[in-house]
Amino acid sequence: MDQDLAYQEYDAFVKQLEETYPAMFSGPYGGISVDTGWWPIIASLCANIQSHTDWWNKNRETRPVVEQVVVEQIKEKFGGLRFYYSGGDEKISGMVTMAEAWASNACEECGAPGISRGGGWIKTLCDTHHNLRESRKQSGV
To answer: Angle CA(72)–CA(73)–CA(74) in degrees, nearest 5?
Structure first.
């Protein structure tokens, strides 16, 4: 993929999240550092978090308020998704745990089923993207 196009797609993805969930991305945060295969996981997680928070907080008289989730950083680390945030409740914590588990079984490049692969930087990849990575290593690219 052309590098300029990749940056444009990344910028569009981040802008969409920030505009769709302004409260979640209201504070300073360390960015989003994951490949495109995990973007649907992050988008689903953000949608579910905000939906839960909004729904739960509709009836404030009879239940405690769920504090707004504010994203601090979203990144890949050791082949796994890390979603750092403040706020929320135990249900949101469960959603984050589920998304991180989902990502640990999805290719970072395309979202297809993947497994954690070593060989330098640990990445979760499908067989196709793993083989491509290995080919690039062998050719020195």
So the answer is: 140
